[in-house]
């Protein structure tokens, strides 16, 4: 690797690839540090993107491939490693990576966020055996079966709508008394004839043997289901920089109006 880069962009999702495009066009000597870009980005796991200017309806995987190709066309370079930690040195920063160290004058953190867990009994036990956080990834395994989607925002409603075309029955379980999703998404969901919404309801336990068989609700009712899709929000992938830059109580990086963090020369972009 080079002795000293102008810029290292950590994360190759939508924010990281956009940063790489602008940096490469500006002639900066930079790399994108990500073990799985672009396939590992959250946008790649989205069935359909309808609110990106220029595309009325495009698969998330196709959109992120456009981002990737665009950045590559201007010379963006990619290093397939993960960030472990950062430390300062006399001329910038040293990034401790999974297989090496990288020196750079500046950094843009674009690691994004991952799916938040419920933290209930059975969730970890049955992850990969009926518990999922991605309908696009795992929905087909539940073809003609019954599933439960937990959440009430855009992601949960989108997941439930997607699964309604694959599964025999979909229960959308929301702890509130009204969905928080955009109206256009709710309207699409309402057109699905096999989705039942359970309001003011929490899942307290996931049960089964080798695979998920049911969930227990807070009214002690047991709901039989073959799968559970959790869509209750996101949490930032900031473990590798905690203690180096300031974060809030939820782990999100604190930045000023220029997107600079508490450390001069370290910037942030995206859902982080």
TrEMBL record:
<dbReference type="InterPro" id="IPR050097">
    <property type="entry name" value="Ferredoxin-NADP_redctase_2"/>
</dbReference>
<dbReference type="Pfam" id="PF07992">
    <property type="entry name" value="Pyr_redox_2"/>
</dbReference>
<protein>
    <submittedName>
        <fullName>Thioredoxin-disulfide reductase</fullName>
    </submittedName>
</protein>
<dbReference type="GO" id="GO:0016668">
    <property type="term" value="F:oxidoreductase activity, acting on a sulfur group of donors, NAD(P) as acceptor"/>
</dbReference>
<keyword id="KW-0676">Redox-active center</keyword>
<dbReference type="InterPro" id="IPR036188">
    <property type="entry name" value="FAD/NAD-bd_sf"/>
</dbReference>
<keyword id="KW-0274">FAD</keyword>
<feature type="domain" description="FAD/NAD(P)-binding">
    <location>
        <begin position="5"/>
        <end position="272"/>
    </location>
</feature>
<keyword id="KW-1015">Disulfide bond</keyword>
<dbReference type="InterPro" id="IPR023753">
    <property type="entry name" value="FAD/NAD-binding_dom"/>
</dbReference>
<keyword id="KW-0560">Oxidoreductase</keyword>
<keyword id="KW-0285">Flavoprotein</keyword>
<dbReference type="InterPro" id="IPR008255">
    <property type="entry name" value="Pyr_nucl-diS_OxRdtase_2_AS"/>
</dbReference>
């Amino acid at each position: 690797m080079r002795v000293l880069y102008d810029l290292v962009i950590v994360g190759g999702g939508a924010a990281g690839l956009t940063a790489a495009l602008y940096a490469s066009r500006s002639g900066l000597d930079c790399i994108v540090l990500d073990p799985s870009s672009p396939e590992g980005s959250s946008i790649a796991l989205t069935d359909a993107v309808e609110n990106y200017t220029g595309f009325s309806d495009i698969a998330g995987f196709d959109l992120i491939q456009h981002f990737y190709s665009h950045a590559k066309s201007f010379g963006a370079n990619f290093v397939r490693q993960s960030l472990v930690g950062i430390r300062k040195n006399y001329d910038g920063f040293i990034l401790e990576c999974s297989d090496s160290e990288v020196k750079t004058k500046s950094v843009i953190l674009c690691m994004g966020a991952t799916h938040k867990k419920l933290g209930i009994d059975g969730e970890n036990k049955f992850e990969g055996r009926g518990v999922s956080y991605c309908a696009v990834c795992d929905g087909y395994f539940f073809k003609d079966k019954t599933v439960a989607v937990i959440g009430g925002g855009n992601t949960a409603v989108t997941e439930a709508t997607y699964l309604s075309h694959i599964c025999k029955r979909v229960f959308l379980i929301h702890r509130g008394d009204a969905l928080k999703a955009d109206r256009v998404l709710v309207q699409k969901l309402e057109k699905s004839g096999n989705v039942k919404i359970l309001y003011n309801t929490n899942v307290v336990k996931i049960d089964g043997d080798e695979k998920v068989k049911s969930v227990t609700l807070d009214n002690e009712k047991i709901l039989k289901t073959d799968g559970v899709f959790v869509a209750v929000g996101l949490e930032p992938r900031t473990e590798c920089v905690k203690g180096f830059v300031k974060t809030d109580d939820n782990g999100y990086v604190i930045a000023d109006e220029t997107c600079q963090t508490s450390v001069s020369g370290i910037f942030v972009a995206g859902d982080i």
